[in-house]
Specification:
There is one protein chain. The protein has 291 residues and is α/β, with parallel strands linked by helices. 36% of the residues lie in helices and 18% in strands. The chain has a single domain, classed as Rossmann fold, CATH 3.40.50.1820. An eight-stranded mixed beta sheet has the order 1-2-4-3-5-6-7-8, with helices on both faces. Helix 5 runs antiparallel to helix 6. The longest helix has 22 residues. It starts with 12 loop residues before the first strand and ends with a helix.
Length: 291
């Protein structure tokens, strides 16, 4: 007897976007799902778009938001540009902003919301400072204006150790203690797959180049709203870091998320969505009222 088997697909569509960034040709891997207000999601250092799987599969969000996530060059399915082997990878704030705006321009997104975590939570502050008029709102997850190095970065790129396992080991303590086991290990798996030297290169931006302590007070939330969501269990970008950031940025809105750590969207998606959805509802209602 032939029994018809029903195939179950996620609503996510993935494809490559060919574009030029800083004079070099790139094939950037992009995933998206849903319709409505563009919501661009930025992954953490050394990881990729898979961190936002739960958001891109949530039917309530997809009714009103076109959720878009892309692998930064050298991350996930986005290969490095030709000639990558001739120089050391070091992400700068200028590089990062250029990548984001290149994707936004190529997709012709109108006033998108941009949400980033960790390094993504830092770069949204640069967007708020440099080009706030281009965005409908900015959401920083685990955001802080600066992070002091608290481990030896040389361990992240050595020939005598397994780089991916070291990266996963370093971030494992940043995951909240209540994270479901499957989600915890999926988050770590993404780090185990990072390319050689990529996590270290991303942290150059996070810990050296991207220090914004002297500039964040200049952010004008009247030009672009800024929402800050931070898990309480995080010793990298700590709750105190976000509290200090919120104090410096007049008009920003901050929420501390109980039980969550440095990777809220992937380590415990259900708990995170309970905090994110009210923010997205507020953004959508404001846009409707302004229309």
């Amino acid at each position: 007897m032939n029994i018809e088997k029903k195939l179950i697909y996620d609503p996510i569509i993935g494809r490559y976007l060919n574009l030029e960034i800083k004079g070099k040709n790139h094939r950037v891997y992009i995933e998206e799902a849903g319709t409505g207000i563009p919501l661009v999601c930025l992954h953490t250092a050394g990881s990729d778009t898979r961190q936002y799987r739960a958001i891109m599969c949530d039917p309530e969000i997809l009714k009103h938001f076109r959720v878009i996530a892309f692998d930064m060059p050298r991350h996930g399915k986005s290969s490095p540009p030709a000639g990558w082997q001739t120089s050391e990878y070091r992400l700068t704030s200028r590089d990062y902003v250029d990548q984001i705006t290149a994707v936004v321009d190529a997709l012709e997104l109108d006033n998108p919301v941009v949400m980033g975590c960790s390094i993504g939570g830092r770069i949204v502050l640069n967007l708020a400072l440099e080009c706030p008029e281009r965005f409908g709102a900015l959401i920083g997850l685990q955001s802080g204006a600066h992070v002091d190095p608290y481990y030896d970065l040389q361990w992240l790129h050595r020939p005598d150790v397994h780089g991916g396992e070291v990266c996963a080991g370093i971030v494992s303590g940043l995951i909240g203690p209540h994270a479901p086991e499957a989600d915890r290990w999926e988050t770590l798996w993404h780090y185990m797959q990072s390319g050689p030297g990529i996590f270290k290169g991303d942290l150059y931006f996070y810990k050296v180049d991207g220090d914004l302590r002297d500039r964040v007070a200049e952010i004008d939330t009247g030009r672009c709203p800024l929402y800050l969501l931070t898990g309480r269990y995080d010793y990298s970008s700590t709750p105190e870091d976000t509290i200090e950031l919120a104090r410096s940025v007049k008009g920003s809105k901050m929420t501390l998320m109980s039980g969550l750590g440095h990777f809220p969207m992937s380590e415990d998606p259900a708990a995170f969505l309970a905090y994110l959805k009210p923010v997205l509802d507020e953004i959508r209602n404001k846009r409707i009222a302004a229309a």
